[in-house]
Design brief:
It is a single chain. By secondary structure, this protein is α+β, with helices and mostly antiparallel strands. The chain is built from three helices and ten strands. The strands form two sheets. Strands 2, 3, 4, 5, 8 and 9 form a six-stranded mixed β-sheet that branches. The protein has a four-stranded antiparallel β-sheet with strand order 6-7-1-10. The longest helix has 21 residues. The N and C termini lie far apart (about 35 Å). About 5% of the residues have low confidence.
Length: about 170
């Protein structure tokens, strides 16, 4: 039985500040077209392409878009140093969040004012990779470790979903 790291790499309608320059949120379904047309998304450690943990085409990464966000299930290779690093860091919750790399294909902007930065809403984008990271731009993302069997995977998905929903409620997002 292999280890499974799962969680939400993206939470829809969750606003974060990017580099102190603007606010950003991802619309529900923003990656649906991309997942159909460019399905071979990678899973990395800290956005580093030299630290590949999995990919959709090899069956080691599963991505699903739902009403909450982009859920992932990752089976890192336990025979590699990076796989063991990912498993250990997520197990200890030193890494408990995610980030992602994308190219925006459709977006809207709302001007900011003296009290708020401009808001970019990503309506459609091509997703290239999801990454495990200790410092995610969207802090409410999640990564948890579970043994890979149906009951535990279902429990891990439920835990990630509950965390995401609680974070969204705290921000007033329904």
């Amino acid at each position: 039985m292999s280890e499974l790291i799962s969680g939400y790499a993206v939470l829809f309608n969750n606003i974060t500040t990017i580099g102190g320059a603007f606010r950003e949120k991802i619309s529900p379904g923003a990656f649906d077209k991309s997942l159909r047309e460019y399905p071979d998304v990678l899973a990395l450690l800290n956005h580093n392409y030299d630290r590949l943990l999995g990919r959709v085409s090899s069956g080691t990464l599963d991505l699903r878009s739902d009403r909450i966000g982009l859920w992932f299930g990752l089976h890192p290779d336990e025979t590699t140093p990076d796989g063991l690093t990912a498993i250990g860091n997520v197990r200890r919750q030193d890494i408990k969040g995610c980030s992602f790399s994308f190219t925006t294909t459709r977006e809207t902007w709302e001007e900011g004012d003296d009290s708020q930065l401009p808001l970019r809403t990503v309506e459609e984008a091509i997703i290239w990779e999801v990454t495990l990271t200790a410092l995610p731009a969207y802090p409410e993302t999640s990564a948890v470790l579970a043994r890979s069997n149906t009951a535990v995977v279902s429990s891990a998905i439920d835990t990630s979903r509950r965390r995401a929903e609680a974070a969204m409620r705290l921000r007033g997002i329904r």
